Amino acid sequence: MPRITFHSHSCFEIVGAGKRLLVDPFFSGNPLAQVGPGDFGKLDAILVTHGHGDHIGDTEAIARATGARIISVYEIAGYFEAKGLNAHPMHIGGGREFPFGHLQWTIAHHGSTGPGGEALGNPAGFVLTIDGKKIYHAGDTGLFLDMQLIGSHYGPLDLALLPIGDNFTMGIRDAVKACEFLKPALTVPMHYNTFPPIEVDPQDFARQAEAAGHATRVLEVGESLEL
Ligand code: NI
Ligand code: MN
Predict the structure, then answer these.
(1) Ligand whose nearest atom lies closest to the CA of 190
(2) Which end of the chain is more exposed for a tag (fewer CB within 10 A), N or C?
(3) Confidence (pLDDT) at 209
């Protein structure tokens, strides 16, 4: 069973299939972070959903320190390859098997400019199948009806990681609707309270989602769950 640890914002550590992955590792400049880029001794892969600084984050430093392979959309993989790092390019609609499991990239409605203004392609989300469990990380996105397709075609989903912070992404009301579209067994909210523009109460999301019949779990920073 995979173990998922919330490191604040959109960063999750996923351990399963004897491997350890990080998603959107944003620690430097993140007031909620309780770990740093030097805290990951053995790491197999870093998955990056899009180019914004709060998602690319500390990817470069962590990849250099651990040798972890960066897996992302083509433009972001190329951005890191140009820095001499080991990256595997994929893109929306593409999926493949890795030693840790199957990775399927999905759409997200957002931007993807790099930290230095680089054009880093389209933002994305993904469905990761690991130890037989299916985990959807939405990346940064607004609500979209194709979430029905993600839930039915790439699911059934054991876990959905959904932004709720509003302003830049879905807010609470739209994230509850996303639960209806995706039909995950469990939803964990992300991308909230890191900065003033995305301050929301995750318990409001939990209450509204539960009232609509969707199981949720709000993770404290550093807290883990097992699927
Ligand atoms: Ni973003
Ligand atoms: Mn973001």
Answers:
(1) 2
(2) N
(3) 98
